[in-house]
Design brief:
heterodimer, A: 270 residues, three-stranded antiparallel sheet, 35% strand, B: 3 domains
């Protein structure tokens, strides 16, 4: 009835929008069928592109803005085609895109939202996030700490006792750890720390290095100079990482990865 | 028994106290108002629930259609690396004549596979020589090639695929600056 509130995770690399449905948060897939949208904005011929399509042109289009979240609440300006944009304005473009995704799903207009921010965000950064929402046409009902949102999602608040909770958040490019105190249904962030340059991508890199080293040892061929081969190694490393999250071991197999003097070379590791 | 049955008229009913009557009327009036209010509330609630249900029905129907349409998506996504590897094996150079004859058969098997995929809505994305389109192409590097116009795909590094109208994997391309 036009009064739904959407929940937004406005991330550094990816963002996500959800809505409460029968007491449960439901993640809304974007038109491309993805549950997360790349936090990337691209400007081209006066057109603003958000998400995967913006990310895909990052290499060829210098007017592509990534990781704007790192600049929230600062005086930083993004200059595109001679026009200055504040981090709030760039973030608003991402929020607008998420809003449209939610509206398409719900079939009604949405103008209220709850947005999560890192626990370490200061008042200026929180205010900037709120402003971004306003620019995007969203009344920000509340700003919630990311670790608090995570704890709520796991139903920690339903446990009927006072306790402390440790929340790890390993994102694509950042790693945050927070300690929360839960008492009488209220959360308080006691401490938060992290490394904003460590993320899942670093794990991929480690696996990639290992694959390349193993292949060199076995076949005497260095794959790191072969861009196409490295692309495949990267994908395989990512997949292997995901696999071992749920299994004890996995198989990496990259047939025809390279051609040696004696014919095609294959890669198979366990 | 001739007992006279005296029907006692109830005097009180006929001579009903006016004050009592008035207050009763007021009471009834109040009750009517209360009920009317209740009816209005129920009605609004009903319309709300009805509208919500209609919305839900529409949404579920749309979602159902979508999931039917893209039922095969994750399966095909997983199959794509197999298709890639198949193609790589077919592109192997400097083979003996014997192996080449063998490869011809393999090419036929590959075509068979691709035909099945095509029948199920899988489409190869055109890239080479086309204008770079971030909706379907992913730029991984740039090139300076005078033989091509600016923003044209110079080389396709990995094939992209569409399932019906959805890009399930963008082509990896080299774009001219």
């Amino acid at each position: 009835m036009g009064n739904k509130i959407i929940g937004i995770d406005l991330g550094t690399t990816n963002s996500c929008v959800s809505v409460m449905e029968n007491g449960e948060a439901k993640v809304i897939a974007n038109p491309e069928g993805l549950r997360t949208t790349a936090s990337v904005v691209s400007f081209k011929n006066g057109e603003i592109v958000v998400g995967e399509a913006a990310k895909r042109q990052a290499v060829t289009n210098k007017d592509t803005v990534m990781s704007i979240k790192r600049h929230m609440g600062t005086g930083y300006k993004e200059n595109v085609n001679g026009k200055d944009y504040t981090p709030q304005e760039i973030s608003a473009m991402i929020l607008q895109n998420l809003k449209a995704t939610a509206e398409a799903y719900l079939g009604e207009s949405v103008n209220r939202a709850v947005i999560t921010v890192p626990a370490y965000f200061n008042d200026a950064q929180r205010q900037a996030t709120k402003d971004a929402g306003k620019i995007a046409g969203l009344e920000v009902e509340r700003i919630i700490n990311e670790p608090t949102a995570a704890a709520l999602a796991f139903g920690v608040d339903k446990l009927d006792k006072e306790q402390k909770v440790l929340v790890y958040d390993l994102g694509g490019g950042t790693f945050d750890v927070s300690i929360l105190d839960l008492a009488d249904g209220m959360f308080e962030v006691l401490a938060t720390a992290g490394d904003n340059r460590l993320g899942g991508d670093d794990f991929d890199q480690k696996v990639m290095d290992w694959i390349v080293a193993e292949f060199k040892k076995d076949q005497g061929v260095d794959l790191s100079n072969d861009k196409m081969a490295m692309q495949r190694v990267k994908e395989a490393a990512e997949k292997a990482k995901k696999d071992v999250s749920g299994m004890m071991q996995t198989q990496i197999s990259l047939p025809f990865i390279s051609a040696g003097a004696a014919g095609p070379l294959h890669l198979e590791l366990t | 028994m001739a007992e006279e049955k005296k029907v006692e008229d109830n005097v009180e009913v006929e001579e009903s106290d006016e004050v009592v009557e008035e207050s009763q009327e007021a009471l009834l009036q109040k009750q009517i108002e209360k009920l009317q209010d209740e009816v209005t509330t129920w009605k609004t609630d009903y319309y709300k629930v009805f509208a919500d249900m209609e919305n839900l029905k529409r949404r579920l129907e749309k979602e159902h259609q979508n999931s039917l349409k893209f039922m095969l998506q994750s399966f095909i996504e997983e199959l794509l690396p197999v298709v890639d590897n198949f193609e790589r094996s077919l592109n192997t150079q400097n083979l003996s004549e014997e192996v080449q004859t063998f490869l011809k058969g393999y090419q036929m098997i590959f075509d068979q596979l691709m035909n099945i995929l095509k029948k199920n809505g899988v489409e190869v994305i055109e890239a080479q020589g086309k204008e770079f389109d971030p909706n379907i192409h992913q730029a991984v590097m740039t090139a300076q090639d005078e033989n091509y116009d600016s923003n044209i795909v110079v080389e396709e590094l990995q094939k992209g695929y569409k399932l019906k109208d959805r890009v399930i994997r963008a082509s990896l391309v080299k774009v001219n600056e």
